[in-house]
Prior knowledge:
Number of helices: 2
Largest sheet: 8 strands, antiparallel, barrel
Strand content: 35-45%
Number of domains: 1
Oligomer: single chain
Number of strands: 8
Helix content: 10-25%
Radius of gyration: 18 Å
Order of helices and strands: EHEHEEEEEE
Strand order of the largest sheet: 1-2-3-4-5-6-7-8
Shape: elongated
Amino acid sequence: MSNLFGSQLMQCKTEKQSGLDFIGKDHQQIITFLGLKNFSIKLSRSREEIIKNQISLDKLERSHLKLKNVHFSEIVILKSNGYPLVFHCSWRFNLKLNKINENPFECVEQKSKRDLFSLEYSGNFSLSSSFDFSNLGKKNKKKSDTLHSIFGKCKIKTDN
Length: 160
């Protein structure tokens, strides 16, 4: 398993889709056109950073400080076509009850507040979006209200 380190770039690859059959049978071309076949993400805070912060708060032992069970971070999806998507994320984690690999980052896109991104500790991701298909042809002129999903894997990007 690869750890997810904050402030570090991860390389992601889409492996499956759901719902794109309604747009066309050329799923791979559609995903590539959207800039989501191969893309990068950048995490603002890693699980490790969140846990270290909670441990330092726990050590303060102040009665008015309570340990959080939900932690917030930001993920920026850097699409291969150059367009970024910003998501605000929550992670359910209790220092005394949970393990670092439990519970995914659950994220909501900040512009439309409709698109969803989920990232597991192992790097598995899902992105559910209405996507903008307006440039794909005459019959798809407007943005769909239906959410379609893509699934894949993210790995820590190395310089190799």
